[in-house]
């Protein structure tokens, strides 16, 4: 029997909600989406659980000369290597450092584009529910988990509609809880598990964050 295929990211968010009911309405919990594709999923989760929504910017690190080949990820100053591709870091350290510097600049650009003058939600001492639309290698989510650790989150919950078994296993070694609706036996790409998997724009992310702030009356949980 074929595993579940989601209609779109909103449908994926609704599928996650029952797994997260214990966190509904808690004043010590926040939902954090990974832009761009994870934000529509996280937005549905945050609205259903009556929790604030924010983002953590994560960028994949492309191999030097092969930008589509992800060798790791970066988030809030945290660099995470894909272990199977760690040889790239040793073989071409200057090229990798140049890639990291470029992606740091993109992180800063997106932080400004998404939040503007709005402060980030406070993380220290709180439960953070990290949401993405799926995970193939898990490198982006692992970077997000480690960034939340640096920000002193009390508990980190990873919530994914679909992910490879390998990614879930890796994430369980770093997060406090990993909740996944589907872990397909044959996993090649996240988009295969969606009927509609259109690219999300920066403008859509900004609009979702603005609407989420309005839902929670702009509370920053500071």
Question: What would you note in describing this structure?
Answer:
With 222 residues, this protein is α/β, with parallel strands linked by helices. The chain has a domain at 9-56 and 121-215: Rossmann fold. It has helices spanning 9-16, 38-49, 87-91, 93-115, 139-150, 165-172, 202-215, and strands at residues 29-33, 53-55, 58-63, 66-75, 78-81, 127-131, 155-162, 177-182. The strands form 2 sheets. It has a 5-stranded parallel sheet, sandwiched between helices. The longest helix has 23 residues, at 93-115. It is globular, with a radius of gyration of 17 Å. The N and C termini lie far apart (47 Å).
Structure, briefly:
The protein has 222 residues and is of the alpha/beta class. It has seven helices and eight strands; from the N terminus they run H-E-H-E-E-E-E-H-H-E-H-E-H-E-H.
What are its keywords?
single chain, 222 residues, alpha/beta, Rossmann fold, 5-stranded parallel sheet, 8 strands, 21% strand, globular, disordered C terminus
Q: Biggest sheet, in brief?
A: 5 strands, parallel
SS content category: alpha/beta
Compute the average pLDDT: 89
CATH class of the domain at 9-56 and 121-215: Alpha Beta
Percent of residues in helices? 25-40%
Per DSSP E runs of 2 or more residues, the count of β-strands stands at 8
Distance between the termini: 47 Å
Which consecutive residue ranges, at least 5 long each, have pLDDT under 50?
218-222
Beta fraction: 15-25%
Name the helix and strand elements from N-terminus to C-terminus, one letter apiece: HEHEEEEHHEHEHEH
Strand line-up of the largest beta sheet: 2-1-6-7-8
Please name the CATH topology of the domain at 9-56 and 121-215.
Rossmann fold
Count of helical regions:
7
The coarse silhouette is: globular
If classified by CATH, what would the architecture of the domain at 9-56 and 121-215 be?
3-Layer(aba) Sandwich
Gyration radius over CA: 17 Å
């Amino acid at each position: 029997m074929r595993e579940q295929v989601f209609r779109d990211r909103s449908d994926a968010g609704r599928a996650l909600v029952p797994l997260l009911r214990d966190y509904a309405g808690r004043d010590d919990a926040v939902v954090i989406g990974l832009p761009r594709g994870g934000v529509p999923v996280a937005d549905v989760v945050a609205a259903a659980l009556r929790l604030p929504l924010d983002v953590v910017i994560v960028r994949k690190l492309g191999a030097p000369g092969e930008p589509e080949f992800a060798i790791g990820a970066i988030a809030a100053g945290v660099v995470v290597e894909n272990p199977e591709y760690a040889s790239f870091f040793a073989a071409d350290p200057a090229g990798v450092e140049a890639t990291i510097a470029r992606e740091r600049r993109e992180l800063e650009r997106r932080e400004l584009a998404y939040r503007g003058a709005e402060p980030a939600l406070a993380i220290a001492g709180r439960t953070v529910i990290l949401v993405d639309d799926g995970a193939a290698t898990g490198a982006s989510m692992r970077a997000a988990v480690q960034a939340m650790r640096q920000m002193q989150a009390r508990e980190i919950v990873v919530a994914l509609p679909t992910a490879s078994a390998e990614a879930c296993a890796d994430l369980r070694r770093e997060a406090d809880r990993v909740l996944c609706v589907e872990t397909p036996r044959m996993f090649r790409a996240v988009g295969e598990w969606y009927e509609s998997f259109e690219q999300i724009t920066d403008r859509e992310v900004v609009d979702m964050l603005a609407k989420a702030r309005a839902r929670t009356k702009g509370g920053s949980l500071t």
